Amino acid sequence: MRESWVSISLPTVIIVTVVLLLKCNNSMEVYHHGHKVVRVTPKTKKQLGFSLSLRHQFTNKNLEFWRIPSRKGAVADISIAPRNIYDNITQQLLTQDVKFKVRKSQLESVIDEQDFKADRKSGTHAWFERCHTLEQIFSWLQKKATQCKGRCQLLSIGKSFQERRLYAMKVQTNRQAPKPLVFITCGIHAREWVSPATCMYLIEQLIADDSNDVALERIINKVDFLILPVFNPDGYIYTWEKDRMWRKNRGVNPNSDCVGTDLNRNWSFHWGETGASSDPCSPAYRGRAAMSEVEVQSVAKFLESQRDRLVGYLDIHSYGQMILFPWGYTRDPADDQKELIRVAKAMAKAIKTKGGYHTNYTFGQASRTVYIESGTTKDYVYGHLNVKYVFSLELRDLGKYGFILPSRLVEPTVKEAFEGIKAMVMNMKLKIDFRLMQNQSIYS
């Protein structure tokens, strides 16, 4: 059955960025004043167990793991509330002889330094030297859709809890002959601002009509793309207006004062198992039921409609400089692990050697490289939809700035990530029945 997805036109939006940022800083100053970020490095199995136990000793308002150690020797980054909470935790770490270091002594001051005020420059390069508000992103997408000379089309594939549209850019070279589809999502976690910037940079490169990049032309002729820059628009706008460190969506949770669900823990494939929280106040809250969130439902409906032509999926996050593949819910290897390792290795090599900054990315199975996580998008696409080439990309950095990447690092990050994405598609071995694809068109 043919699905028709909505092609849209956006109204012109005028944004007073300076006023917005002043408002953001005022609201966030209260919320994060005095918070610290501590890096913990457990060296033994006992220290690892103790470090992980901290998650259950304090409320989510007082302590949040930005990075969870998957094994001894792996680091954990922990955001800790002020006053006696910090003293309590550090004293316990000292007692257990766990090595730690304060990475950010005043989290709020780091947030204030992330200055994305209105650019004084113009043009493509200036645009990718910073992150942007949701309104700016939507306006940019509309502008590109009118300039791409038939090579792209802006679609709405659903709505958020607060009725904001999920806008995705379709990029193809031949509208009459659909090719295998690669779906790329950004911004599922609201605070990871460099993620939407990466999706926009990818769109910019794919639709450019003056590219001399032979590899880029090859992948455009090989597959069609659908790119969703902001999976979680409600959460994203909330990080600009209220809380820079917000992660979840903004859905209401029945019988709880805590708002939001982690959209990357809400998928039905092994939902509610290890690595997702049943606590509505947790940043990793799984939701009241599998697929309970409207954003997840919208994207799942689209994915289901395209399952016969969907050959690749990439979910872009920050931070950690990692390329991850299934499984997340178990330490057992995926059936295609050797092939996934081959492609991930090619991605990491391209980022380092072609990205221009010699940045090192590690790669591996998500549950073994980071931690066990259930109900994730990539496990759903790999396990439920049987798509072979499924990855998540954790962008810069390694923790110096974490989620609060400064503007000067935005452009280097998106440029090198683009090289990794090209390598992913270039290295995919595709076998697809084009007869099936005739009924799987997203062209309206």
UniProtKB/TrEMBL annotation:
Its main location: secreted. Coiled coil: none annotated. One of its GO terms (molecular function) is zinc ion binding. One of its GO terms (biological process) is proteolysis. The active site is at E394. Its cofactor is Zn(2+). It is found in: Secreted. Residues 130-428 form the Peptidase M14 domain. InterPro entries: CARBOXYPEPT_ZN_1, M14A-like_propep, M14A_act_pep, Peptidase_M14. Belongs to the peptidase M14 family. Extracellular metalloprotease that contributes to pathogenicity. Involved in the digestion of the blood meal. This is Carboxypeptidase B2. It comes from Acropora cervicornis (Staghorn coral).
